[in-house]
Write a structure and sequence with these properties.
1 helix; zinc; 4-stranded antiparallel sheet; zinc ion binding; CXXC_Zn-binding_euk; 9927_t:CDS:1; mainly beta; metal-binding; single chain
């Protein structure tokens, strides 16, 4: 009886010939990866919760709060996918609700990074904004929290429609330049807000 010999054949990988040389076909592997890879959705990004801390020197002003429910908050935004910072201030309204692509959810802000084209979102906490009081003058205090996906807020610019109350209520205060001064005729005293700063803390 003849003995059968088992021969193991070596499988040759698919190769490409470029300029007369054989190379492993990494292109085909990349092509298959692109065909079957699921695009990353906003819900795949980890949640990042940020506390907005506000600081200012208050002169005869009892508290500082956004003047209206539809106050437009302005932030500098960094994409957490490519780490690029948007050069423009981005406005966010707590009352706005925008659909999140690929999800049944919504958020106050939904935007696409102009560098890497990835989607990102941000949603304010539903609890009321905490006024900045004269007891906190010169110290950082938390005003609100925001949940982010795919982005991070790195700066805040207070603008018009910030309300204050020093016995007399002042509205439409512009803190773009970092300070504001007025005279309270009812109280007969000067009032002012100066040395405005803001920072974000991960919570």
């Amino acid at each position: 009886m003849k003995t059968m010999k088992h021969v193991t054949e070596e499988v040759t990988p698919i190769r490409l010939r470029i300029n007369g040389e054989k190379v492993f076909n990494k292109f085909i592997a990349w092509l298959f990866f692109r065909m079957f890879r699921r695009e990353k959705r906003l819900t795949d990004y980890p949640r990042l919760k940020l506390a907005l801390l506000f600081k200012a020197e208050l002169e005869n002003v009892t508290d500082v709060v956004p003047g209206y429910d539809d106050y437009e908050w302005h932030f500098k935004v960094k994409c957490t996918s490519c780490n690029e910072v948007n050069n423009n201030w981005v406005g966010v309204n707590r009352l706005d609700q925008n659909e999140i692509p690929g999800s049944r959810g919504s958020a106050n802000l939904v935007m696409r990074c102009k560098f890497c084209k990835r989607e990102s979102s941000a949603q304010f906490d539903t609890s009321p904004v905490t006024p900045y009081t004269i007891e906190n003058s010169g110290k950082f205090a938390q005003m609100t929290t925001i949940e982010c996906r795919g982005l991070e807020f790195i700066d805040f610019e207070p603008r018009a429609t910030v309300g204050t109350d020093s016995g007399t209520k002042f509205e439409d205060i512009d803190l773009t330049d970092g300070d504001w001064a007025e005279y309270d005729e009812k109280g007969g005293i000067p009032v002012g807000i100066s040395e405005v700063q803001a920072e974000f803390k991960r919570v």
